[in-house]
Amino acid sequence: MKKKKRRSVEEISAGIFVTSLLVCALACASAAILLGRGEIEEKAKELPKPVTELPAPSTLENSYFLPSTQDAGLAYQDRLTFFGESTTAHLRSRGVLSNGTKTTQVLADESGTKRLSSRLPYENVIDPETGKSVGLLELLGEKQPAILVLSFGLNGVYGYAAAPESFVADYSALLSSIQEVSPNTTILLQTIYPVTKESERFDDPEEVNRDIRALNGILPKIAARKDRVYCVDTASVLTDKDGALDAAFDNGDGYHLNAAAYREILHYLRTHAWEET
C-alpha cells in the first residue's frame, strides 16, 4: 500500500491563505449587499409619495388655476376653441355653443375623440370650417386661436396613473408643439372629468376617480413649465360629494356628459375667465 503523501508546511500555509481570502471575500460581499440594501431603503424613504395621494386641484392654492371672475359673457365664450377627448368633442353634438351643432369652435377627427400621446401633435383633425382633414398643427398655425381649451387624461387613465411622468411628458410635448406654431395662443388645461360610481366602462370606478384626482393634481406642474398656460377646475362643477360624476350630468354610460353638464362647464369657464394683464 502506498503511503499517503504528507503536505509540506508551505502547502498548508498556502491553503490557509487561500481559505482566508475566500472568507474575506464572502464577508465583503455580504457587507456590500447589506450596505446596498440599506442604501436602497434609505433612498426609498426619500422618494415622493405615490401620485395617487396628491390632493384634488380644488384644494391646491396654486396661481396656475384661474380664479373666480365676473361672468365674461358670450363674447368671451365665443373666443374659446376646444380640443380633447370625446367629452370635449360632444360640445358640438350637444348644441351648447354658438351656432349649435354647426359650431366651428370644436376640433376633432372623424372618430369623435382623441387620446393624449407623443404622437398626438402630428395627427389630423377635421377643419370645422371646410370639413377637410388636416394636420392639427397646420390648422392651429393657420387659425391662431385666441384661447385654446384642452381636456385629456381619461383615455389612458390607468397607464398615466401608473407612470405620471408620461402624462407630464406627453402633455408638455403637445403644449410645446402648439406654442411653436401659435405662440400667442393662451392655453387652458381643464381638469379631467370624473366617472359615475356605477360606470360600466370601468371595473372599479372608485379607483378610476382616485387616479383622475391624482392626475388633476399634476396639471399645475405642467402649466408651470410653460408661458401662457393655466388650469381651470371645470371638473369641480360636475363632481358629487364622493368625488364621482354627479348622476345629474351623466348621459347614460357613466362618463359621457349631457347638455346640462356642458352648460355648467361653460358657465365655469366664463366665471373663471382668462384676462390679459
Salient structural properties:
single chain; 277 residues; alpha/beta; two-stranded antiparallel ribbon; 41% helix; 10% strand
Topology as a string of helices (H) and strands (E): HHEHEEEHEHHEHHEH
Spatial order of strands in the largest sheet = 2-1-5-6-7
Overall, the morphology is globular
Could you estimate the helical fraction of the residues in percent? Answer: 40-55%
Computed over alpha carbons, the radius of gyration is 29 Å
Stretches with pLDDT under 50, minimum 5 residues: 1-61
- Classify the secondary structure makeup into a structural class: alpha/beta
Q: Considering the protein shown, what is the CATH homologous superfamily of the largest domain?
A: SGNH hydrolase
The CATH topology of the largest domain is given as Rossmann fold
* Number of spatially distinct domains: 2
CATH architecture of the largest domain: 3-Layer(aba) Sandwich
Assess the beta-strand content as a share of residues: 5-15%
- In total, the number of strands is 7
Number of helices: 9
| Major β-sheet profile | 5 strands, parallel
Mean pLDDT, rounded to whole units?
84
What does this structure look like?
The chain has helices spanning 9-46, 73-77, 86-93, 136-143, 157-162, 164-181, 205-216, 219-224, 259-270, and strands spanning 80-84, 106-107, 124-126, 133-135, 147-151, 186-190, 229-232. It is built from nine helices and seven strands; from the N terminus they run H-H-E-H-E-E-E-H-E-H-H-E-H-H-E-H. Residues 1-61 have low confidence and may be disordered. Helix content is 41%, strand content 10%. It has two domains: 10-45; 58-270, Rossmann fold (3-Layer(aba) Sandwich), CATH 3.40.50. With 277 residues, the chain is α/β, with parallel strands linked by helices.
